């Protein structure tokens, strides 16, 4: 079942038009973990070929993945993240950290991320100030930018007035 695209002029809404379907995030997870071929992803994810093809097509059309012929077999392809796709890494890491914290399985972490050079675990994703201090939602104010629509301006004005009581 497809859904209508999100129409409001919002960075989150527009990003969700591309990566908001849950299987898309799992495809991205697999790509970040080195899975490259359609068959490997389909086998691992257990989804139909039509659903996987649709997810990969969306990611390809958005410039997030690039479909390349495999050198050893001109009929088969591999999928590689582009720079635009690599920029989604912090999003997936934040979801991983959130999931490990708030949906534990009772046996310990399912996955930890470590820095290759040191072997030390990476820090949880956080919103940080310019000087590196972590900031919570009460310490951040959304401000409309030069490309903001009237909708976004109204939304941020409403947030500014109600922020303290809602977050």
Automatic annotation (TrEMBL):
<keyword id="KW-0804">Transcription</keyword>
<feature type="domain" description="HTH hxlR-type">
    <location>
        <begin position="10"/>
        <end position="107"/>
    </location>
</feature>
<keyword id="KW-0238">DNA-binding</keyword>
<dbReference type="GO" id="GO:0006355">
    <property type="term" value="P:regulation of DNA-templated transcription"/>
</dbReference>
<dbReference type="Pfam" id="PF01638">
    <property type="entry name" value="HxlR"/>
</dbReference>
<keyword id="KW-0805">Transcription regulation</keyword>
<dbReference type="InterPro" id="IPR036390">
    <property type="entry name" value="WH_DNA-bd_sf"/>
</dbReference>
<protein>
    <submittedName>
        <fullName>Putative transcriptional regulator</fullName>
    </submittedName>
</protein>
<dbReference type="InterPro" id="IPR036388">
    <property type="entry name" value="WH-like_DNA-bd_sf"/>
</dbReference>
<feature type="region of interest" description="Disordered">
    <location>
        <begin position="131"/>
        <end position="151"/>
    </location>
</feature>
<dbReference type="GO" id="GO:0003677">
    <property type="term" value="F:DNA binding"/>
</dbReference>
<dbReference type="InterPro" id="IPR002577">
    <property type="entry name" value="HTH_HxlR"/>
</dbReference>
<dbReference type="InterPro" id="IPR011991">
    <property type="entry name" value="ArsR-like_HTH"/>
</dbReference>
């Amino acid at each position: 079942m497809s859904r209508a695209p999100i129409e409001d002029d919002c960075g989150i809404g527009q990003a969700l038009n591309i990566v908001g379907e849950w299987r898309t995030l799992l495809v991205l997870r697999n790509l970040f973990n080195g899975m490259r071929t359609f068959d490997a992803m389909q086998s691992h994810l257990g989804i139909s070929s039509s659903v996987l093809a649709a997810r990969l097509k969306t990611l390809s059309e958005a410039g997030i993945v690039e479909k390349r012929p495999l050198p050893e077999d001109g009929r088969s392809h591999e999928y590689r993240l582009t720079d635009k796709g690599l920029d989604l890494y912090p999003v997936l890491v934040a979801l991983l950290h959130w999931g490990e914290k708030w949906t534990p399985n009772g046996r310990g972490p399912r996955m930890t991320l470590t820095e290759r050079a040191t072997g030390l675990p990476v820090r949880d994703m956080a919103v940080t100030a310019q000087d590196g201090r972590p900031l919570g939602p009460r310490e951040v104010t959304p401000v409309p930018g030069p490309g903001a629509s009237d909708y976004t301006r109204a939304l941020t004005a409403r947030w500014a007035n109600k922020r303290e009581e809602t977050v």
